[in-house]
Amino acid sequence: MEGVEKKMKITRAIALIALLLLTLTLSAHATVIGAYRATVAPNTPYEIAFVPTAPGRIRVHAEIRPLELVASLQLYRPDETQPVATALGHSALDLVAEADETTLRRPWRVVVAHTNSVALTVELDINFPKALCTEIAAEFGISIFYEEEAGEIEDHHCDQMLRALRSLGRDLMDGLRRIKFLPPSEQLEGRFLSAERTVEMYRMTPGRVFTIVFYHELAHFVHIIKLGASLKRDWTMLHRQSGSDMSNYARNPVGPPNYAMTNEYEDFAVTFSVYIVNTKDLFDLAIARKESVGKPLLLEKAKVMAQVFLHYRNGERRTYIYRMGLGFPVVPVQRASVPLRDDGLPDFSEPILWEAF
Fold first, then answer.
1. How far is CA 240 from CA 149, 243, 262, in A?
2. How many other C-beta atoms lie within 10 A of the C-beta of residue 339?
3. CATH of the domain at 121
4. Pairing of β 32-40 and β 143-147
5. 117 in the Ramachandran plot: left (φ > 0), alpha (ψ -120 to 50) or beta?
6. Which one, of 163, 156, 150, lies nearest residue 131 by Cα?
7. 235 and 124 inside one domain
8. Residue where a domain terminates, one of 129, 149, 177
9. What is the distance in angstroms between the CA of the first residue and the CA of the last residue of the chain?
10. Which helix (DSSP H) or strand (DSSP E) does residue 120 occupy?
């Protein structure tokens, strides 16, 4: 009996290791991964459609429960009646195929079917290439997921996210592991999970609100993961000094105007996103509050943001400044490198050479 239990434990351990290796393989090749879950009745095929928009590898992984039930997994190219890949078995099934130029922007299909006497539960991960999301995976090593109820990610989402990540730079974004799209929520627009280093976006249409919320969540990553201890202490002190006086806070570009007052983390993320929307406008407002009403805290917070984007060119201290344009569904963002003065202010004197993203 002990020998049987030992073998069962070894078998389970091997299965867990295999699943982990498969997950790592999926993530390593990830462009977009759609997560689906369904209860499949006997003799009633369950079908999912998805649309690759870039050439590359398609991987389908299915977890079947109960473990002993046998099911078939089939993958179809657009407009074809014969599957390009098929698997039959229980527990876990995998398929692999290639999307080429002739199959792009048209729906591929995954079909799960079985003839058991009872229903089974299937969990599917469909890993497929989306234009520009492939570049996010290649440049930043970030996996992008969506849940079925959130709907498939659009190319416009990939385009906007890539622009945002590139505008902030690989050094600042290094270490972000995952971006996950969840169904729409009445309470939340986005969230950053620090332990998983994951940005969660609650489904919304591409556009200005999506762009600002995405920068807001990236700001949480910068604050919690990337910011040095000294700047963190400075920010905590500035937030505590700000109290309940709205004059000491930046106005939230989307959502409740006073959202920065929630805590030091939301204060940082709101100020960060305002800095991205228009750095000069933020400094002009902060300087006016200091000079007209004697309240310098917003200016000191803006200076911290300039330190976040500090870099050197030929030994000169410089910072990045930003401005966000108008556009739909993709919002253009521009960045410029300018000298950082001894008083902590960016030098906004002309000419400023803007780089477009």
1. 40, 6, 11
2. 15
3. 2.60.120.510
4. parallel
5. alpha
6. 156
7. no
8. 129
9. 65
10. strand 120-128
Number of independent structural domains in the chain: 2
Residue 269 lies in a domain: yes
Q: Looking at residue 31, what is its pLDDT?
A: 87
Task: Say which amino acid occupies 65.
Answer: R
Could you give the CA distance from residue 99 to residue 77 in angstroms, rounded to a whole number?
8
Residues 117 and 219 in one domain: no
Question: How far apart are alpha carbons 33 and 147 in whole angstroms?
Answer: 9
Q: In what order do the strands lie in the sheet with 355-356?
A: 310-313, 316-324, 333-339, 355-356
Strands, sheet with 32-40, edge to edge from the N-terminal-most edge strand: 92-99, 56-65, 120-128, 32-40, 143-147, 178-182, 198-202, 190-193
Q: In the block, which residue shows the tokens 């698997």?
A: 87
pLDDT digits (tens, 9 = 90+) for 311-345: 999 999 999 999 999 999 999 999 999 999 999 99
For residues 323 and 269, what is the distance between their CA atoms, to the nearest angstrom? 16
Residue 245 lies in a domain: yes
**234 shares a domain with 101:** no
In one-letter notation, the amino acid at residue 51 is V
pTM of the model: 0.90
Is 191 within the bounds of a domain?
Answer: no
The first and second tokens of residue 126, run together, are 């469909």
Same domain? 117 vs 234: no
- Does 140 fall in a domain? no
Q: How far is CA 115 from CA 36, 45, 72, in A?
A: 21, 10, 9
Q: What residues make up the domain containing 59?
A: 29-129
pLDDT in tens, 280-298: 999 999 999 999 999 999 9
Domain final residue pick, 111, 129, 147: 129
